[in-house]
Design brief:
By secondary structure, the chain is mainly alpha-helical. It has helices at about 1-20, 30-55, 65-85, 105-135, 135-165, 170-190, 195-225, 230-250. It is about 80% helix and about 0% strand. Helix 1 (about 1-20) runs antiparallel to helix 6.
């Protein structure tokens, strides 16, 4: 149990470590911001496919693919629904609409991106917990290590956009902290409820993958292609994807 708890803190803490690195970044020009966001899109794309959707297909029979497809679509529809019915996400970040000229749409998109990361952290944590519950400690550490390494760049890329949008450093850190705590909770839930989580895990993994695919296509790629730096953002996305692919294969 002690090993599981320490692993849970390590997996969640890796997001915080990445966030602390992200605080070292000051205000950056659009070109660099688009490259960083493109890299994040590549990381998220690889995480969605390699770390969430493909593992979800490996549970149960071939008919499980229907559950996976349903989970992907449910995740995308969920974020789309949230985007429409919660147009004031900036309130969670402590942003005054009047001080920002009434233009908080960009901030809402950033927070939607952060929400997607938080959502995808839960089933990742469950997956880590389940792997410990199976009794194969070696495989469990491999899964947890891969998730932790992935969380570092994710933690980094959520900081700069929030700071640039006017969110205070304290509130930005608290938001980043919450995304890491979600994974700690998921790890413990997965460990203590392996029989239940094994049943719901395929849908949960696919759901998280769907949220990430939605954000990548609807928010991140359009944003990185709107300032004239499309090529840099595209190659950055490919690099991010390849980095995560390398880590997934080698670890």
């Amino acid at each position: 149990m002690k090993i599981v708890l320490l692993t849970a803190l390590g997996v969640g803490g890796s997001t915080i470590a990445g966030a602390l690195i992200g605080f070292l970044l000051k205000k950056i020009p659009h070109k660099f911001n688009d490259i960083i966001l493109g890299f994040a899109a590549g990381v998220m794309l690889a995480a969605a496919i390699l770390g969430l959707i493909i593992p979800a297909t490996e549970y149960g029979t071939k008919l499980n693919i229907l559950v996976v497809i349903a989970g992907i679509m449910a995740g995308a529809v969920f974020l789309s629904f949230i985007d429409k019915i919660v147009p004031h996400l900036h309130h969670l970040a402590g942003i005054d609409k009047e001080k920002h000229g009434g233009n908080t749409e960009h901030l809402n998109k950033i927070l939607l991106f952060v929400m997607a990361i938080a959502i995808h952290n839960l089933p990742e944590g469950i997956a880590a917990g389940v792997s410990f519950g199976t009794g194969n400690i070696g495989d469990a550490f491999t899964v947890a290590g891969g998730i932790a390494l992935q969380n570092i760049p994710e933690g980094m890329v959520i900081i700069a956009p929030m700071l640039a949008a006017g969110i205070s450093k304290k509130r930005t850190f608290l938001i980043a902290l919450s995304t890491g705590l979600v994974e700690v909770v998921g790890t413990l839930v997965g460990y203590f409820a392996i029989s239940v989580s094994t049943v719901i895990l395929p849908f949960a993994l696919a759901f998280a993958g769907g949220t990430m695919l939605y954000v990548i296509s609807d928010e991140m790629i359009p944003e990185t292609h709107s300032h004239g730096y499309e090529k840099g953002a595209t190659y950055s996305l490919l690099i991010g994807f390849c980095v995560m692919l390398f880590m997934d294969i080698m670890i």
